[in-house]
Amino acid sequence: MKKLIAIMALALLAVTAAHAGNELDGAIVRLQHDWAKANYHTAKDEQEAAFKTLADRAHQISATRPDKAEAMIWEAIVQSGYAKAKGGIGALKHAEQARDLLRASLKLNPQALQGSAYTSLGSLYYKVPRWPLGFGDKKKAREYLEKALQVNPDGIDPNYFYADFLLEQGETAKAIEYFNKALNAPARPGREDADAGRRADIEEGLQKAKQRS
Hints:
Layout: H1 2-40, H2 44-64, H3 69-86, H4 92-108, H5 116-127, H6 138-151, H7 156-168, H8 172-183, H9 192-212
Helix pairs in contact: 1-2, 1-3, 2-3, 3-4, 3-5, 4-5, 5-6, 5-7, 6-7, 7-8, 7-9, 8-9
């Protein structure tokens, strides 16, 4: 009888865990689509408010599952978007929050979301100003972006951000190579809205690179 009760308890735990996992996955998917809307389809003067709302929601999601790297990564991505929309010195605290979340996610699961934490950290390190204004560091940016490409060599985001970084560093020919690779990256099922917006970013970056070559 005790053995039967133990088996039933384990089965109940498995069902509960699966339900919690499905809820988290659904919440992250909704967050992804709302991020794409805020980032690509919201007027510039309305983006700060949109990202503030998203940041609050993303934090609620990650707070309920502090053991899940995916939730932390998406809160960080939203915080990065919030920092970009906010701009100025007030943006730095959101960039710092994003950095800290990404570092924490790497301790949990560096492979989560195909190494997206490496991509996001790399982009933060080259976009944020250097000390004494911020924590920007071009060397760290390159290291993280190259690590992201090791984990996900054909992904649209790691190739785009590496290309954008190379263009900023004046490595134009290499930037064109990676912009083209990003442009030819395989589609991400369920992320069509984000892919469309990112391809527009790639085309813009590619045009800039060609003008400088």
